[in-house]
Amino acid sequence: MESTPAPGENIAVLRKARGIGQGKLAREAGISLSYLSKIEVGLRPATPPVVAGIAKVLKVQVQRIYGQPYLGPSEQADLLNDLRGAVRRYTLPKEDVPDPAQLAADVGKAMKLRAETKYLELLGMLPKLLGQVTSTALMAASGEAGAWTQVSDVYGCAYAAAHRLAMPDLADMIVSRQAWAAQQTWNPEAEVAAAWNEAGTYQSAGQYDDGLAIVERAISKYESASNGDTPARALSLGSLHLRGIVLASRHKDKQAAADHLRKAHQYARDIPNDVLWHNLTFGQENTALYELAAHIELGKPDKAAEMGTALLATPPKTLTPNRLGRLFIDIARARLDTKDYAGAEEALEKAFLIAPQMTEVHPMAREVIRVLFVLHQRARPKLMTMAKRAGLAG
Question: What domains lie within the chain, and their CATH numbers?
């Protein structure tokens, strides 16, 4: 099917190299022996919480099990190296201060590319843009919070690209730079965006309890710094609770997940049409997306699939491609778990249509495709096309 080993194959190789039997690994990772056996032969998808538990036992990063990154050696690697260099030079930008209007337009373009999952085009402009916004902020008059907010927002775009293209060390470095910039803004919303991404690094590493601690700290800090029932407050706190839903549900903490979901719904009532601000999306439709994902993580794929039927038939109109793509991938995963294989393929096809660059490298999209192949779906031409786009078939 592909030359790169599947996650299940990687698990088996790492397990055997460490002299660990299937029974011991399953027991210490908190899953059944049958489940682990099916993952290793490709009959079940390697989900984020399961991979996190196995990675902890095997003492490796989750990316090692997934085989990430999936990028080729040329264009993407060059662009990421350029970004890495710009992030490293965060106090020594080489770029001159540009025209303010043009800079604002370029920052807006970068945020739009992030939302549209056009990562290659985004990577192409980020190194220069990071230098320009930083030069502008460093040269600005003392107290120019707006200039530093631009720096924070551009680092937020950089984090999205590094995270999605499975560069955890680069993502960690970017988050520290974003937090540095956010601290110069006197803007609580910019600090929320930085905390959101910081919690995301723990989520990617499978350290869900630490990620929850970051979220709780950010909520407490923001509540003490803001007053009144403003849209900014609802968006900021609501977004943090969305991150909390994912972390808590993957941590199998049903009560914490329910609490974060309840509070997110409360704030979403004030924002009926989803708003994108500082690279955070919040509103009623995005909250429904997180509720669906939580059902999957908490072992209720049938409930997630039921929610997904209406959402797939009439996709939310206010969500950006990065959110819709994730929604369709989650629906595909729920349908796979409920043995609706044709439905899983249908959802994946929509994910590829709306957010192709994200879907090609998203671990769960690739796992759903891989399992469908193992389950003798090779003769389906649309599935074969998607597999080739993801590099899972020659």
Answer: 1-67 (1.10.260.40), 73-186 (no CATH), 206-215+224-299 (no CATH), 300-394 (1.25.40)
